[in-house]
Every structure is written in C-alpha cells, then in structure tokens.
Amino acid sequence: GNMEREFIAERQKGLQTYLDVITTHHILSNCELVKKFLDPNSYSVNYTEIALQHVSMFFRSEPKWEVVEPLKDIGWRIRKKYFLMKIRNQPKERLMLSWADLGPDKYLSDKDLQYAVKLLSSCSHPYIYKVTFATANESSALVIRPFSEKGTLKDLIYKAKPKDPFLKKYCNPKKIQGLELQQIKTYGRQILEVLKFLHEKGFPYGHLHSGNVMLDGDTCKLLDLENSLLGLPSFYRSYFSQFRKINTLEGIDVHCFGHLLYEMTYGRPPDTIPVDSFPPAPSVFVVSVLESILTCEAMKNGMPTVSRLLQMPLFSDVLLTNSEKPQFKIPTKLKEALKTSKECIEKRLTEEQKSIHQHRRLTRAQSHHGSEEEKKRRKILARKKSKRSAYESGEEHSAKYSNSNNSGASSIPPAPPPPPLPPAAPPPSTEVPMQCSPQPVVSASRGALLSSIQNFQKGTLKKTETCDYSAPRIS
C-alpha cells in the first residue's frame, strides 16, 4: 500500500476524527463492538456464556422455570443479559429474566445485598413494575419480571419492537416524533410521583431513562430498582459527572428526568448537555421545566427538587386515577445500610467529578499554551525581552568604559619613592622652572616630597673630598 508519510498522516487524522464522532455518540460509545475495538483486553470475556452458567445453576434449585430463548442485545449494558422465560405449569405466560454482575458502586455487604434484592418482590406501587422473583450472590444477581409486548416508554417514542437489538431500535430511528402534550404531562407526573416515593423511603435509584420505564396501558411503571443495589453505573453518568452541582442521587434523578422529558417532547435525546436553546414545544410549560434542569444556569445554580417539579404548572393539574396503596417495608437495619451505601456512591461521584474538573483545566491550559495566538504572543514577548536585554547590556558597557577613562590616572600604580637625599642648601635667588606632567592627587607628606624633588638644584650641593683606597699599596 501507500506508505508515504503525508498519506499516512492524513489517514491517521481521518481515523481520529471518525473515532471522535463514535466516542461522543452516547449510544455508539456504549456498544460492545466499539469497546472491544478500543480496548480488547478489558472486554475479552463472553458475558453471555457467564450469564448462561449462572442461570443454569439457578435452575437446578428452581426447576419450575424454563428458558424460552435468549433476548440478544436488547439492552445497552455489556454485562447484563436477558432471557425470555416461562413457568412449566403456565406455558402461555411469558416472563423476562435479567442477569447482571456487580458494578463499581456496590457498597452493601453480601448479606445486605441478598436481603435487599429479595425484598424487591414485596414492593407494591402503582408506578413500579412488579418483580416476580429476585435473588443475588456474591458476584451477580438475577431478576424475573412479566414480559410486556408493548415494551418500554423508549419503544413507544421510537416506535420500536421490544425484542430487537438496542442499536437497531434506537440508534438511527426512521421517524422522529415526540409524544402528545397530555401523554407528556401524565407520564411525567407518574414518574415524578414514584421518584418522590423512593426518596422518602431512602431507597437509592439514580437509573431513570426511557428504557427503564415500562408501559402498562396508560400507566408508566419504573424498572430496574436493583441497579443501584448492584452498584451499576447510570445510563447518563457521562453527562452528570461533568457537573459538580449534581452530586446526590436525588439530583441525579432530577437530571435524568430532564433527559426523559426532552426525549418525550422532541422524540430524540438532546444533542449536547447543557442545552442552550430549545426547539418549539407543545407548551411553554414544557420548556420552562426543561430550562430549570438542562440549561447551563441550572447546572451552575442548582436544579429543582422532585417536590418542586410536581408543583410546576405542567404537572400540578394532572389527575391521577390509580388508587393502589404503595407498600414497601424496609427494615431499620437495612435502611442504615442503604444510607451508608448511598453516601459512598455520592462520594465516589464527587471524587470522579473533581478528577474530571482538574483534567479539563489542564487540557484547557495546554490547548491555550499550544494555540497559534499564544505562540505569537510568546514570540513577541521574547523579542521585546531580547531587545531590552541588549539595550541594558549596551548601557552597562558604556558606563564601565566611561568610568575607566575618568579614573585611569588613579588606577596607575604609584612610582617607588626615591633614595634619601642629603640636607638641601638654602634655595637660590633664582628659580629654574621645570616642566612636568600632571600629577595625581596625593597626600600632604607625599606632596612635600614631590615638591622637593621638583625644586632640586645640583649647584647647591657641597663639594666633597674622596679618599680612594682602591689602588694597590706597596710597602
């Protein structure tokens, strides 16, 4: 093939752009094939085989259940598998078994986890989907529910068949159309009521999305209450982990409700979070609720609570006709364990948000440092600094040269003093001036000596007689 450097660089750039598009697409980025391509070592396990092993072990102790068929890839989770089930003595009734291993937010002890999962089958609420059977062990859990041919709220929005693979159902819908205003109001009110119920019970959820809302006639019923017990990550975690104000499970539920309301209104998820502007909606009250949850201001200043959302005009006038009394008794000891688990989940989220915030700051700084404008600015500053240094260096050199000229005489070492002279005769009547070079400034005693030397006259010296004893003597 073509191995030219420019061609390879161009292909690499194109591949990186392609991968960026895939990894920023919420559904595609969670696809098993994408994850295996990007990180084959971490996703080499066949979870369908593992799920079948666990389900087979379960059937040994519970022989009344029988697998009809596996429901391949109907969900978005890689480590969660689904099977269509039936009861041997009720062959026409269809049920759905879901199996999942434990996630990173599992903080309950094995004993508390098993007890809490089994407790789900005793929960009775008009807006919670009934659990037929549930059990857990130290590594995974399985839950059996009635199978609904109508599917979930997401299936209604996307006009999809429940048994089809997740990507086929929701990734590229043929027609995008939101629900009617009355459906939005009714379904929204029902979902808010069940969230309020769970919050009051101290039961952590944090997994609201349209695929976890089952339709039973005109009633919405919440699914997958076990997810928070098993410590599984939320469908929208990649969104709310970007915003440090969303740091509680109650806040997560409100944020996820904003996604759900947007999807019900416009027939598709929002392109980006936060949302800057909203398309025309069936009612201004819908936009008002969305603005209170999904805008940048809401992310920074805080979102409304579930109770506050119920008081907004979009939902406050909805009449609920279901009179079923909710029942969900949680023992005090388990409540304390759930509270501790909830605090641990929130703490890990806060730490993750802090880490993401620091990484984003570093990335922005590096991006700014490497931008063309910043490079030009640094070059200009470096040029100015270089000129300033050269100018200062020149001034310093000139100053040194000037000082050297001014102090040149003083810098010459003084001449050695002359030998001692005999006493001088009185000065003559006339003086013979002598030319001499300028002398440096000296002390008083030294000045007198120099003056004496300058005025020296040879004629003033006395004549002397010399006795020469150097000639040889002959006796």
TrEMBL record:
It holds the Pfam family PX. The keyword Ribonucleoprotein does not apply. Residues 356-367, 376-388 have a biased composition (Basic residues). The keyword Cytoplasm applies. Residues 445-464 form the WH2 domain. It is found in: Cytoplasm. Keywords: Cytoplasm. One of its GO terms (molecular function) is protein kinase activity. GO terms for biological process: early endosome to late endosome transport; endosome to lysosome transport; negative regulation of monoatomic ion transport; protein targeting to lysosome. Residues 350-443 are annotated as: Disordered. It comes from the Eukaryota. Residues 413-430 have a biased composition (Pro residues). GO terms for cellular component: early endosome; late endosome; plasma membrane. Residues 1-362 form the Protein kinase domain. Residues 400-410 have a biased composition (Polar residues). PANTHER family: PX DOMAIN-CONTAINING PROTEIN KINASE-LIKE PROTEIN, PX SERINE/THREONINE KINASE PXK. This is PX domain containing serine/threonine kinase like. It comes from Apteryx owenii (Little spotted kiwi).
